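for the writeup, i need someone to sanity check this before i put it in the appendix. the sequnce is what the collaborator sent (i think, or maybe the updated version? ugh). structure was predicted straight from it, no edits. if anything looks off just tell me and ill rerun, i have time this weekend
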Amino acid sequence: MAIEVPSALVEFRKVQVTGGNSFVVSLPKSWVTDVGLKPKDAVAVVVQPDASLLIVPRKDIRETAKSEATLDLAQGLDKDTLLRHFISYYLAGYDTIRIGMGKADPSLRGFIREGIRRKLVGVEIIEETSAAILTQCLSGYIDLPLKKALERMAIIAAGMLTDSVGVLSRGGKAMAEEVIERDDEVDRFYHFLLRQLNIAVRDRSVIQEIGLSSTRDCLGYRLVLKSTERVADHAAGIAAEAENLQGLSDPAIQKVREITAMSRKVFDSSISALLRLDAKMAEEAIKRTTDVIQMEGKIGSEILSSRMSGSQVASIKLMLEDIRRAAEYGSDIAEIAIDLTVTEPQAV
């Protein structure tokens, strides 16, 4: 793999063979002097994801220090702002996050625990006193690598799409709420995977560990995660509107089911194309998005031609828009899949 390096920094050295099966390269004297190496000192040789080698004096190899962030309620943060700031530190890759409670309302502790449980993966409360709560954020990317976690996230979002339409015929408030609650699970995966990508961009050695090959992949998957999270948001919106449309005619319900199945097919195919890096499958998914858009206009006029109240008309329009937008986000994922099938240009 070609590595792009400024010419002023390049110094070529020949690879030599010693002992018949060992390859050696001499180190630049100026570098050896600068880092304070002496004969028989050891250096660490670390293979990088881009096939280059990182050479570090052994004395400079040390355990990475744990990073800690602190949130202080004395700064006047309300509970929603506190949770947003906590998530920001989590996404940034901090190992521990300390929350200074001060004289905060005791009920805030329950809100923090519930917010962490609903929104984040791998966060444990390891210490709690009257003055503070200390949480530890586990990396988790070894046990649950990025692509596997994305696949699970997509399965939940796709299931939400299908079940959201089921509210029309056999649901009601309870079923709608159950679909909407699953959006929290998608958010948990979204935050967990975004944290992995943020850490990988900062530490190149993590890129391969999470199952990717370059920082370009990190950017592409960052966009995929957001699109998948938005599909789940639209599915929750469909369920909410479906609750207002109890009593819709069977033919109308069937039409909504059909367009939703088409939208889900676009999304499922796009995720599969991404994970397989299959450009042909991605192109087919993009073409099917046009079919969803055309069907939206067709069945919208057919359903709305029947006698409906003003609130039902609004709900139908919003529902069909959510179904279309889910397909369009799937199409966005397919475009990223195509982009990632193209190899990066080699340095001259």
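The mean pLDDT is 85. The first helix runs from residue 29 to 35.
thx in advance!!
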